[in-house]
Amino acid sequence: MSRVDVSNHRKELERCKKLINFNFKDEDIIIILRKLQEPVKSVSLLNKRKLHYLLNRAVPNDAIIKYILHYEEEKRKDKVETEINTIPARIYDKSWQINMKELYFYKNFNSLSNWCIISNCNGRKVTGFVYYNRSIKFSVPKNIWSHILSNGNMPENKSIILRSVMLYPLNNEYIDVYPSDFKISINYEDYTTLLPRETQKHSKEKKQRVNYPTILDKAIVNSYHPNNKEASFSLVVSFNNQSMLNSEFCLNIFECDKISNEDIISDIIKRPKKPVEEFMKELETFLLSDPEINIENATVSLQSSILSVPIKIPFRGVNCNHLTPDDLDSYIQINRIKEDWLCKTCKKSCTPNEIFIDQFYEEILKSNPNAILVDIFKNGTYQIVKTFE
Q1: Measured between alpha carbons, how far is 104 from 234 in angstroms, rounded to an integer?
Q2: Residues 330-341: pLDDT tens digits?
Q3: Which residue among 49, 115, 129, 198 is buried most deeply as judged by most CB within 10 Å?
Q4: In the prediction, which pLDDT does 123 show?
Q5: Is the pTM higher than 0.90?
Q6: Which helix (H) or strand (E) holds 385?
């Protein structure tokens, strides 16, 4: 077997593993095992393990690889039939501006599809439950696609994301919003699970998805095939006639740079810290806040509000009106889920651009890294009340 054959064989093997892990449903794996004349178990996990075992242990395994790839190809052809009624989404009027809420874990957005409109303004005229499909065509940039072809992974610093907004007139800043009962597929594979998770404040309310972009990286990587040299994709969105009555949504697909937690923290640490002198003025204001009560000191927690461990890098926000700091590392990490950027103490906006490091607390923690509670007196002295054990 030549080097080229070995390379193609390895890529086909990895493709099969991805299909088993991410694309095939339980019934698909059962069909394949029966075709290979292998016994089928009642537990789906055991069937998946069995197919992996056959794929890795069979010598040669060319026949198994060939059948799995053939099965996937036939399945894709079958799915094309279900998309007959899919029509392209309308292109958004470019004279309108869509100013999206700023993201801090992604930057340098490059539109891959233009803003496209999906709507159902005449939904009330349709009786019953009807699903509509709208397609959005896009191409992945060559530098990303070539990386996937050669490595089988997304570049570490790149992402492909879907953003969806509900159109309101004269809105200054749009957040990511999705119609209820919204589904997406890419190249005929269902990827609805990639949409942000659903939340429900009260049992009687409809579930709403978290206001965050949809990260499509997994779908793009799964679409890799050794023989597929093109980077063109079709994203199909499905919604029912009752999910967005008299509403219009705009969708766009972007290629962007990913920002790591470490990069955000590094940028914040490089900024000038809040001087001790300014902190002392804040402390004085706090101690004199009630003229009828003589407050000698402020008792402040030095414990992370998220992990309940001692703070390592103490920060507050410019909108905060309290003395209590929080831990920068855990705060950045928790916001990666949906980028709320709200102070855990006062619930006011506290984005990375609004964060500052307290020099006063930094000096305390440098000398007392296990401190979790401290009394601070008006002359600037302090006493550790409690340490982490």
Answers
A1: 28
A2: 999 999 988 999
A3: 115
A4: 47
A5: no
A6: strand 382-387
